[in-house]
Amino acid sequence: MLFIADVHLGKIAHFRKHGAAVPAHAAYQNLEALTEIVNELNPDTICFLGDLFHSNLNNEWNDFKKWVAYINTEIILIEGNHDIIPPKYYTEIGVPVLDNLQIGSFLLTHHPTESTDFFNFCGHVHPGIMVRGVGGQTFRLPCFFKTNSRMILPAFGNFTGKHIIKPTRTDEVFAVVEGKVISIK
């Protein structure tokens, strides 16, 4: 099973509709990246941990429908706060929409959830880490943020921000740099 959080499909079309000067081709980069990772990993199931779409139906929905048919892989959507498209649209293309999903000792949600019974995989936060270079320059990198009871995935979408986290000494941080995941702490 492949976990992906916060793709925010449709966000670029949403911003363009409201006058933001965002290049139209940027919208296709998310589906291209999804296709690439699915082709590389060949998962049995893809579980989107919320915010698959950013807003209401727009032209990117038709591209997503074609993508679902093309990849021919089971897809599950854990509903996020931006997933306001009615679930019937997803179920019509074979994508169930759930509030959460429990698999063994794992709890899959969109929002981070505290549980003593489950390890939580989630999104929502768009975690990032600030890294200083040798010349004093700083970089904001997306990251996986792991605590004792949770793993918060970075936003997958190419047009999302980052919330800079402040890990404790027991937390683990894995930065995403040029397509690689590197342990920072």
Provide a concise account of the structure shown.
With 185 residues, the chain is α/β, with parallel strands linked by helices.
Strand content: 25-35%
Query: How many helical elements?
Result: 4
Give the H and E element order: EHHEHEHEEEEEEEEEE
Provide the residue-averaged pLDDT. Answer: 89
Counting helices, strands and paired strands, the structural category is: alpha/beta
Give the helix proportion (percent range).
10-25%
Q: Poorly predicted ranges (pLDDT <50, ≥5 residues)?
A: none
Number of strands: 13
Structure description:
With 185 residues, the chain is of the alpha/beta class. It has 4 helices and 13 strands. It starts with a strand and ends with a strand.
